[in-house]
Amino acid sequence: MIIAIDVGNTNIDVAFFQGYKLLRHFEFSTNRQATSYEYAINLSWLINNNGLKADDVEGAALASVVPPVTVELERAIRYLFEHPEEAKKMGENGRRAVEEKYNWENESKKLIKVYETLI
Fold it and tell me: Other C-beta atoms within 10 Å of 9: how many?
């Protein structure tokens, strides 16, 4: 499997290919201030929580028009390839955070509080 990343001024597209077959595609906002560690966490989460296996990743292709992001994403990709166990742990921790903290039940409570202040 290959990770293909296209960095634009507004969005970053991440696609996973097996040969010519597109397996999954994701898009998130370009953040010029994000660190390589933040991008590594994002990529780990995408791999580990969407039916993909980190062990199946054989390489990456990166195209970018945002040089600061290019540098950080390259560092993130290298880190993930050089530290596969850490990459897996990052993805698992990200999933746990979403399940425990950033879930609809917790977010709905916050939203209700906002509505109550408006009424």
Answer: 10
Burial 61-83 (b: 16+ CB within 10 A, else e): eeebebeebeebbbebbebbeee
CATH assignment at residue 88: 3.30.420.40
* Residue given tokens 């054989």 in the structure block: 58
Contact yes or no for 3/61 (Cβ under 8 A): yes
Structural domains in the chain (count): 1
- pLDDT tens for 36-55 read 988 988 888 888 777 777 77
Map residue 35 onto helix, strand or coil: coil
Residue 63: which domain range?
2-118
Residue 6 reports pLDDT greater than 90: yes
Express each pLDDT in 10-19 by its tens digit. Answer: 999 999 999 9
Instruction: Measure the CA–CA gap between 93 and 41, rounded to whole angstroms.
Output: 9
